[in-house]
Write a structure and sequence with these properties.
- The longest helix is centred in the N-terminal third of the chain and has 16 residues, at 52-67.
- The chain has four helices and nine strands, in the order E-E-E-H-E-E-E-H-E-H-E-H-E.
- Strand 2 (25-35) and strand 3 form a beta hairpin.
- By secondary structure, it is α+β, with helices and mostly antiparallel strands.
- The strands form two sheets. It has a seven-stranded mixed sheet.
- The protein has helices spanning 52-67, 115-129, 143-152, 162-167; strands at 5-8, 25-35, 38-49, 71-77, 80-87, 98-106, 134-139, 155-156, 172-177.
- The protein has one domain (5-177): Aminopeptidase.
- Keywords: Transferase.
Length: 179
């Protein structure tokens, strides 16, 4: 694959057309669930494939991220979006040290090329520059998603964000200490 260009996106660059060739597809076979204070890998199978409604909602969310002082970073190959991440600008936690990594996705055909790892690194740098001590991730509980975050050095969050847990009760709540 040729060079991937990473850049912070402006609100005017975020629209449904940006995602025209982005493929948010995932076949899930197993998911992590917390039972009796222990994490258990369970056989939970489904396929996730975003369509027009999901991309329209995503565009609203990403525009709001920028509007509220957060950041959205895109990864491009030949001017086509192949990955993106977003960091919110609302501090939370008992010490107000967390900022949320609200999105990180690589297009299906572009996975395994280090794009997610680079986006995660850029999101960490941005969150640290914004004054965060920790990055908070309410993330998909699939085996593959959790393997990615574990490889990045994420651990179970010391403090759970109740609002995010309520929104996605099956998500795993993770954190990454920004050094």
């Amino acid at each position: 694959m040729e060079t991937i260009i990473y850049k912070e996106l402006k609100m005017t660059e975020i629209n449904v057309a940006l995602f025209a060739r982005f493929n948010r597809y995932q076949e899930v076979k197993k998911c992590w669930r917390k039972e009796n204070e222990q994490w258990v890998l369970k056989d939970i199978a489904f396929t996730e494939q975003w369509g027009p409604a999901e991309y329209e909602y995503l565009v609203k969310c990403l525009k709001n991220t920028i509007k509220t002082g957060g950041t959205v970073i895109g990864a491009f190959h030949n001017n086509v979006l192949v990955g993106f991440t977003s960091v919110e600008n609302q501090f939370f936690g008992s010490k107000k040290e967390y900022l949320q990594l609200s999105c990180i996705h690589s297009s299906y055909e572009s996975r395994g090329m280090g794009i997610g790892k680079n986006l995660f690194s850029l999101a960490c740098k941005k969150a640290k520059d914004m004054g965060a001590k920790k990055l908070y991730i309410s993330t998909h509980s699939s085996e593959e998603s959790q393997a990615f975050y574990k490889a990045m050095g994420c651990v179970e969050a010391m403090e759970y964000n109740a609002k995010l847990v309520d929104e996605e009760p099956c998500d795993c709540q993770l954190e990454y200490r920004l050094l």
